[in-house]
Design the sequence.
DNA sequence: CTGAAAGCGCTTACAG
DNA sequence: CTGAAAGCGCTTACAG
């Protein structure tokens, strides 16, 4: 291993544009022009080729700090997400990072854990960024970040009014869930809600309520839990212990559905024979559950990718339009007609 | 929203140390000294205080690019992991990022998805980093990254020979699993192996084989699958279809165990009555499964944290020792004595 | 105790 | 077509 700062023969191990210039017998500015792809019409093709070859041979890579200082730019953007451990946000990150890298940008994730920016012991990276993409939060939570080009993801119309936004059409997804269950014959629903004050969950809850209300004879009870298996089990249990218990549990999230499975099993209810259960998101756990979970697939990676594209457009002075990405109902084996009988 | 480069009253919106100097009536070097905390004995306390107050009032933050250029440092390190979507690596990231932030370092994750560095379309971020932490890979996979201070995580003794390393004591963990099952009375084991050529999985497999071999009457069959539910189900199924089928399935990973659950259910086997199953890692899915999974908890966050600490030490010229973090057997309800009978 | 100056490695007018 | 020079905003000898 050779350390970055090490010198070989009294010379810096990492060549600069000056070194390339010297080796190629041209001026440093010519090197910069050529490698910055601004040479056509200003440098002869032969010289350009020589410079390129010399740079390649010496393994030259421009110094990012110098470039950033000169240009007043950092080529890095901040991705603000509630948590990186949830597979959903991992996918958002991948989508964003992929588009970013294609455009020579780096993505730094913040905050690195579940602690919010406020009161966080973490150094504030917002000093060295060109823009911000925030997912699944309110504009309010972004106050600590100061002014910077901003794109909001999965944050609803309020955020969309203040910044270019990419959302999911979660209401459509939820309506598809209710329609699917209604078509199977269900009328008594339980909503296992995420106890998280975010637009995306309010929208899911409102859409479920509206869709059930539009159903002749439809009823909906609700219990909220944290997005965590045991809290969800407890919430779902409350619904299942109702005197007139629901025949279908609509969960705001796949992990919540895992908790609903536990609550059902604890009561000797078999899914989907005695109880139908649905999730939302379609993360890996949906297919790990037994029976596999009927859920709404949210294109998380696409969300990140489109968010980054919008930020890129914003950075270039454009006005990217806000948009909504459709979800897709994925019917698996956790849903079936309600049990016949007195229910 | 105000863009970073915007000017107000013909003046750059973001103050520099020169602005602070002018406002405080001192030289720019004094500002730098004071804010860099190198002023004691060189600047009078009164002046220092005045500078600090002025900087605060103007909302001054040093320009990172200028600082990096001058210092030849970037204050960012690369975290190279196989994938960010696996909850395990999310935890590693959090641990590393937490320690990094406490020391004013940023962490950039690479590669942003499952594609390896080789042939990846992603820009190479290794041009602007101070060091690298790589988790769960071979030194070989790091060839593209050139020389940089390096710490290896969860990569075994071969890596530890070349760089400071933090590993898990996975062999101990696997021995604890076998001992636990043996104490329950199991003798016929199946090993659902991860089809991943990494030290950590080879070590798990070898430790399981050795521990079972040391058991009077112990037998071990093996089947490998990708770390993905359906592939795991298929691998576990092969083991369960053996003429003399195992009474316990030892899985290299919790997700593999989820597949084993499916294989068992598909054959009408009830866990743990007819079959015991164990996992490894203790990620969220372990508790989402029904019954909850007996597994080995690997302190992933601690791995990231200790890795970053080691890198910090390395960056300061030290020689951090390699070390191994103990796992912990977590006994839940997926393990029980083997069924009595001809088995 | 304080300031003027050099220089990190780039990009980009500007002059020729 | 090519080069000399300025300057981005810092840190750190150096001079006083």
Sequence:
């Amino acid at each position: 291993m050779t350390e970055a700062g090490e010198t070989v023969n009294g010379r810096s191990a990492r060549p600069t544009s000056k070194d390339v210039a010297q080796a190629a017998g041209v001026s440093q500015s010519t090197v910069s022009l050529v490698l910055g792809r601004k040479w056509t019409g200003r440098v002869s093709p032969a010289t350009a080729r020589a410079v390129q070859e010399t740079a390649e041979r010496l393994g030259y890579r421009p110094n990012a700090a110098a470039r950033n200082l000169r240009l007043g730019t950092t080529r890095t953007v901040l991705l603000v997400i509630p948590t990186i451990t949830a597979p959903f946000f991992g996918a958002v990150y991948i989508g964003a990072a992929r588009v970013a890298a294609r455009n020579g940008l780096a993505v730094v994730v913040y905050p690195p854990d579940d602690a919010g920016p406020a009161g966080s012991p973490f150094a504030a990276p917002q000093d060295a960024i060109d823009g911000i993409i925030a997912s699944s939060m309110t504009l309010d939570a972004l106050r600590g970040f100061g002014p910077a080009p901003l794109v909001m993801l999965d944050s609803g119309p309020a955020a969309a009014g203040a910044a270019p936004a990419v959302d999911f059409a979660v209401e459509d997804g939820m309506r598809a869930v209710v329609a699917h269950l209604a078509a199977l014959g269900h009328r008594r629903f339980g909503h296992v809600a995420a106890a998280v004050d975010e637009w995306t969950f309010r929208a899911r809850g409102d859409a479920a309520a509206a869709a059930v209300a539009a159903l002749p004879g439809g009823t909906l009870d609700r219990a909220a839990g944290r997005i965590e298996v045991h809290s969800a089990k407890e919430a779902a249990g409350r619904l299942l212990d109702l005197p007139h218990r629901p025949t279908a549990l609509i969960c705001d999230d796949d992990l919540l559905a895992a908790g609903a499975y536990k609550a059902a099993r604890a009561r000797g209810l078999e899914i989907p024979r005695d109880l139908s259960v649905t999730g939302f998101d379609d993360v890996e756990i949906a297919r790990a559950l037994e029976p596999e979970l009927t859920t709404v697939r949210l294109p998380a990676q696409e969300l990140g990718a489109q968010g980054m594209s919008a930020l890129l457009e914003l950075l270039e002075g454009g006005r990217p339009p806000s948009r909504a990405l459709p979800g897709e109902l994925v019917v698996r084996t956790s849903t079936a007609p309600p049990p016949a009988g007195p229910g």
Q: What stands out?
A: Residues 67 and 73 of chain A are 8 Å apart (CA to CA).
